[in-house]
Amino acid sequence: MKLSLSIVLFLLFTPLFNVVAQENPSVEKNLFKINMLLLGVAYEHGFDTKNTLYSELSFGVGYRDSGFNGSSWSFYPSITEQFRHYYNLEKRTNKGKVTTNNSGGFIALHANYNFRPISSNDSYSSTETSFTIAPLWGFQRTYKGNFNLGLNIGAGYTVNSYSEDSGFVPVLNFSLGWVIGK
């Protein structure tokens, strides 16, 4: 009786051990996304099991408040590059959470170039370009229907092209979109 119970339990749980042992979480080699919040497209290329290069072409929003000139909003094209290291893929897998489409937490080195604004009041808002570099912490999740959510946050240094307005800035990026091509 004990032998037959042991055999039945072994046969029931053996497939579970094989599934856990075989699944080695890794980032996607090629991932294309559309960002709907601030219109844009992104491509993420996986170098190995935990590191990717994230590239995005999108539109940014800027707000400037000046006691002399008042406040203004501007919209500008932007190019973003991030070298991402996903640090918790194994932990998510062990907890039974999804890691597909690079769903996980990451730290990143972020570089961003903002072109001249395409919609602003030149007399109240800067028309200069800027470059920002920053270390970031972030996460992204992909849900049913390939719906993608992402958040990055950090502190960086911005260099403006024509003014003495360079300095430390907060960096925040929130994205809503879809993974395409999967």
Describe this protein's structure.
The chain has helices at residues 2-22, 89-94, and strands spanning 30-35, 40-46, 51-66, 70-86, 104-114, 130-142, 147-160, 167-180. The protein is 15% helix and 54% strand. It is elongated. The protein starts with a helix and ends with a strand. 25% of the residues are buried. It is mainly β and 182 residues long. It is built from 2 helices and 8 strands, in the order H-E-E-E-E-H-E-E-E-E. The model is unreliable at 14-22 (pLDDT under 50).
Short description:
With 182 residues, the protein is mainly beta. The protein is built from 2 helices and 8 strands, in the order H-E-E-E-E-H-E-E-E-E.
Radius of gyration: 22 Å
**Strand percentage:** over 45%
Which word captures the global form? elongated
Overall number of strands = 8
Low-confidence stretches: 14-22
